[in-house]
Specification:
- The complex is a heterodimer of chains A (about 425) and B (about 475).
- By secondary structure, chain A is α/β, with parallel strands linked by helices.
- Chain A contains 10 helices and 28 strands.
- In chain A, strands 1, 2, 5, 6, 7, 8 and 20 form a 7-stranded mixed sheet that branches. Chain A has a 5-stranded parallel sheet with strand order 10-18-12-13-14.
- In chain A, helix 1 packs parallel to helix 2 and helix 1 crosses helix 8.
- The longest helix of chain A has 19 residues.
- The radius of gyration of chain A is 22 Å and the shape is globular.
- In chain B, helix 1 runs parallel beside helix 5.
- In chain B, the strands form 4 sheets. In chain B, strands 5, 6, 7, 13, 14, 15, 16, 17 and 18 form a 9-stranded mixed sheet that branches.
- The chains are: A alpha/beta (about 425), B alpha+beta (about 475).
- Chains A and B meet through strand 7, strand 8, helix 3, helix 4 and strand 11 of A and strand 18, helix 9, helix 12, strand 23 and helix 13 of B.
Chain lengths: ~425, ~475
């Protein structure tokens, strides 16, 4: 069986990619989704706040997903639910398995990777102490509560201030649990400001910045945790211990793009983003294989995932229809204060009017400039009043500016304007 | 009345049960935890040691070499992951080289096949990621890695298939003896037996004391480990041991596991409580430093888990095997610190001899099941995958995405002779939840499958031991 475009994952990125592919001439599109329904993690995000950018209205996760599920229904898109993609190959074959379809090998004109991300677990951040039950990643707890209908605890401490953790602080409180604290090792929150306000402050849940859990106690179930203040190098400071009696710890300590299929196909991965290295049209190092959404780099808002998914779907359709790109390549690299720019590579000839570049900043900046450097030469500058690491930045660089690059490397860097004046 | 009651179903109790189930005997196995293999057997470095560490002439030396010879066939017959992998002890200074020479001489005396001193150049050629500061080492090609809990599960499952009766969540609290019959009081009723085999791991001194036994007591030497993502696995090709200068400690090992992860550990420290498996930040930091001195390029950001295990060491320098001098017909299989896992099948054979010498009549059964076969979806070729899913569609539904474990495998494991009752028991049998997301995605799915297949409420499913509950009640919406 051959499709123009096969999309791995039917979450927001995959759904948008299907739309993008069909809008650009793809005649046969297949979405492979491991769950029993489309929508991905949106299905367990029953809170509102989705779609403000894209639809200019406030939707819940399932509502946001439903809009795209309805769109896809009217398009030439085939959907394989409850199906696991086991392998993708560099010549664009997809091996997958399901109860109903069995084990199959499919062929694609182009592939879009939309596998999303997973949560960092306890082991990955080395929380010392006993190994009782009652320690969940925030997303797992969310699945138990919102999808399965079960509570996971009564007295809760949340480690990390990622958005899912903040959302779960509110959710658990509304379900009658007591959320004792949200503990963040960094001196700033890792979630969106609106979530800090609406999920912690509105419920009087204290946020402990520059603190971490230094010990978990409890042989069978969590009984208490020890929280300590950390110094500038994130080392716990003795004597600052606070004890919380709790039965549950929720972890919201970061998301990791799920690139196991990508790695197995030997597609180049950027260690800074954890996602594939991509060109301006979201094509990976393997021609005809594209990536979008949280599998490429972790986003803050689903609206931007949708936008990226559409672009990747469009580019995949064009590839499948024979439009292959080449030409002079500019590398995009991170300079001071900048982490993980996407795309990492730009084929100049293929940029229409402008090229968007996404990245995060390392620190909190007030009144700062983002500079695009070509060697020592500043190609252009973007002013920002306020930037924080938890919110993704975007700059739009005009083609005319890109044309001026003499070297083949663009370096992005951030300088605060005060420094500049001094 | 049981002919033999085995106390403890770790690797030692399981091996003894397997060996004894060849005979026409009524065998009972009493296990304190809610699953087999849940003590030291599940938390160790999973290595079948080459045999150069043991002091020549000891029971350890004899049974280690015999044990690894038996393990190879046993693992093949019972479908347990096993892979021969050379052991390499690496030295970074002259003092360590001296220790290596001692190990070499011991190895020769113990009859370790193929053991030799190896040069810095050969080490770096075989293991390009070992620190170039290495000056030399020891090489023994006969070591192996094994799936330790599957090993114990396979042995005990086979014993049960051959008629042995296993009682889980059954902790022995007292033993008395009247008219040559043992009365064993447990948290799950009373049991009568003619013979007792004490394979209680870190609790074997306490069990021995229940019959008036003396002479050995446990000291709890624990060790911590790091488990890394599969992407770190290819950094080493053999079992790389740092050269330990501490007695009772074989050194920190860096090696690929049978599951394809990289493992590194243990360290060596004393704890007061045989169930104190807590990890410690400072100790782990120190361990990390020591690991990086041997293989500097390991990426600790790829850690997926840390854990601790406790060695069943005693004040006696060797395994304690034999009829208790304090109580006839009470057989100790105690002090099973390393190389206990390696020696287990050999110790089980000795256990049979000891029982015979103590007066137990042993007739071989006419029929004895000694093979076992599991279906592991990810290891099948494409044609077999196609046929398997056609035959049983549950094998087409992947539940654990990190390890590619299907619902078919999970359901099959639940309906085996030893029923797994916890999420971790499923993990040990199918590998589901063992991968990089550590059950973040598949945990709730496995939870619901387990509840469905056992016919219990999801509220009754535990993570691991009794008391490790996961859910506290329905949500408001569901309760209404």
């Amino acid at each position: 069986m051959k499709y123009d475009v096969i999309i791995i994952g039917g979450g927001p990125a995959g759904l948008a990619a299907a739309c993008g592919a069909c809008e650009n001439g793809a005649k046969s599109v297949l979405i492979i989704e491991r769950a029993k329904e489309l929508g991905g993690i949106l299905n367990q995000c029953i809170h509102n706040g989705f779609g403000l950018q894209y639809f200019k209205e406030e939707l819940t996760g399932p509502e946001y997903a439903e809009r795209f599920i309805n769109l896809v229904k009217d398009l030439p898109v085939q959907i394989s639910l409850d199906t696991m993609a086991l392998e993708i190959t560099r010549d664009r074959k997809v091996k997958c398995v399901s109860s109903t379809g069995g084990y199959q090998e499919l062929e694609a004109g182009a592939i879009v990777l939309c596998m999303g991300c997973r949560e960092r677990a306890r082991g990955a951040i080395s929380i010392p102490g006993d190994r009782p039950s009652g320690i969940f990643t925030a997303g797992t707890a969310q699945r138990y509560v919102n999808t399965e209908g079960y509570m996971v605890g009564k007295r809760i401490v949340i480690l990390g201030s990622g958005d899912i953790g903040l959302i779960m602080a509110r959710r658990m409180t509304l379900e009658g649990a007591k959320v004792l604290a949200c503990v963040e090792i960094m001196p700033y929150s890792n979630g969106l400001t609106r979530n800090i306000v609406q999920c912690l402050q509105d419920f009087d849940i204290p946020l402990y910045l520059s603190h971490t859990i230094t010990k978990i106690i409890g042989r069978t179930r969590v009984e208490k945790v020890i929280v300590s203040r950390v110094d500038e190098s994130k080392k716990p400071i003795p004597g600052t211990e606070i004890e919380f009696e709790c039965d549950t710890v929720l972890l919201s300590v970061g998301l990791i793009p799920e690139n196991e299929l990508t790695r197995a196909a030997e597609i180049e991965i950027d260690p800074a983003t954890g996602g594939a290295v991509v060109y301006e049209n979201l094509e990976t190092s393997v021609p005809g294989i594209f990536a979008a959404g949280n599998v490429l780099h972790v986003h803050d808002l689903v609206d931007y995932v949708t936008e990226e998914g559409k672009r990747a779907g469009a580019a995949a359709a064009k590839y499948a229809l024979g439009e292959h790109r080449s030409g002079k390549v500019l590398k995009v690299e991170s300079g001071s204060g900048v982490v993980g720019p996407v795309p990492q590579l730009i084929r100049l000839e293929n940029v229409a009017k402008s090229q968007d570049i996404f990245f995060r900043v390392r620190n909190i900046y007030q009144q700062a400039n983002i500079r695009v450097l070509d060697g020592d030469n500043v190609l252009c500058t973007f002013k920002r009043n306020h930037m924080i690491p938890s919110e993704m930045e975007r700059i739009r660089v005009p083609r005319t500016i890109l044309n001026q690059a003499v070297s083949d490397r663009l370096v992005l860097s951030v300088e605060s304007r005060e420094e500049e004046q001094a | 009345m049981y002919d033999v009651l085995i106390v403890g179903c770790g690797i030692i109790g399981a091996a003894a049960a397997y060996e004894l189930s060849r005979y026409n005997l009524k065998i009972g196995i009493l296990e304190k935890y809610n699953d087999v293999a849940n003590g030291a057997t599940k938390a160790n470095n999973a290595i079948l040691h080459a045999g150069y560490d043991c002091v020549p002439g000891t029971l350890e030396a004899k049974t280690n070499l015999e044990g690894i010879r038996l393990a190879k066939t046993l693992c093949e017959k019972l479908d347990v992951e096993y892979r021969q992998l050379p052991a390499m002890v690496v030295a970074f200074n002259e003092r360590q080289m001296e220790k290596i020479n001692v190990l070499y001489k011991q190895g020769i005396k113990n009859g370790v096949p193929g053991i030799r001193i190896i040069s810095r150049e050969e080490i770096l050629e075989r293991e390009p990621n070992v620190s170039p500061k290495v000056i030399g080492g020891l090489f023994a090609p006969n070591a192996a890695i094994v799936n330790p809990w599957e090993y114990a599960i396979a042995l005990s499952e086979t014993a049960v298939r051959n008629g042995a009766e296993l009682y889980l969540s059954t902790e022995v609290t007292a033993i008395s003896k009247e008219d040559d019959v043992f009365k064993v009081i447990t948290t799950n009723g009373e049991f009568l037996a003619k013979y007792i085999v004490n394979a209680a791991g870190n609790f074997s001194d306490r069990i021995h004391e229940m019959v008036g036994g003396k002479g050995f007591h446990h000291t709890y030497y624990a060790g911590e480990y790091y488990v890394f993502d599969k992407n770190q696995c290819r950094l080493v090709n053999s079992l790389i041991f740092s050269c330990s200068e501490e007695s009772g400690f074989k050194g920190t090992t860096i090696f690929p596991s049978v599951h394809g992860n990289l493992l590194a550990g243990p360290n060596f420290y004393q704890v007061q409580d045989p169930e104190d498996l807590a990890t410690d930040g400072q100790r782990l930091a120190e361990l990390k430093k020591n690991i990086l001195e041997v293989v500097p390029c390991i990426d600790f950001r790829e850690t997926i888990r840390e854990f601790a295990g406790i060695r069943p060491s005693t004040n006696i320098d060797d395994f304690i095997v034999g009829e208790s001098p304090y109580c006839p017909k009470f057989i100790n299989l105690a002090g099973m610190k390393s190389p206990g896992l390696s020696a287990a099948p050999a110790l089980a054979k000795i256990c049979v001899d000891v029982l015979r010498d103590a007066g137990l009549t042993l007739d071989l059964k006419d029929e004895f099941i000694d093979t076992r076969k599991r279906i592991i979806f990810r290891e099948l070729d494409e044609q077999s995958k196609i046929e398997l899913v056609k035959k049983n569609p549950l094998y087409g539904r992947v539940i654990c995405r990190c390890e590619t474990v299907t619902e078919g495998e999970i359901v099959e494991a639940i309906h085996r002779p030893i029923v797994p009752r916890s999420i971790d028991a499923i993990k040990r049998r199918c590998n589901a939840g063992m991968g990089r997301c550590q059950g973040g995605f598949c945990g709730p799915a496995i939870h619901m499958i387990l509840a469905r297949e056992l016919g219990v409420s999801p509220l009754d499913i535990v993570m691991d031991e009794d008391g490790t509950y996961i859910l506290t009640g329905p949500t408001k919406e569901v309760a209404r």
